[in-house]
Give the backbone structure.
Amino acid sequence: MSLKRRDFLALGTAAGAFLAINKDPFEFLFRPPRHYMERAQERLGSPAAIRKAIPSTCMQCYSSCGIVCYIEDGRLVKIEGNPQHPHNRGKVCAKGLSGLNKV
């Protein structure tokens, strides 16, 4: 299919008019729907929530790496490596990070 110059100009004019008329024609692509934002806010918690850090040890494998567990409103919300642990120095494998899903 060959695109003629006249068809190309007509298509360009129509696209330009569409963009000029609409306030934000690509809003639905770049902004998530409102219910996604509300669901994310529920998962992350309120900004004023206080997180308590508790050092612990991961028992997912034989290495027993040091981890820091973050508790918010009585729920475990995050696990990361303990930078002060002499064995793993803040690094955690995938098994250790998946501990959040096992609780």
In short: The chain has one domain: 5-102. The chain has five helices and three strands.
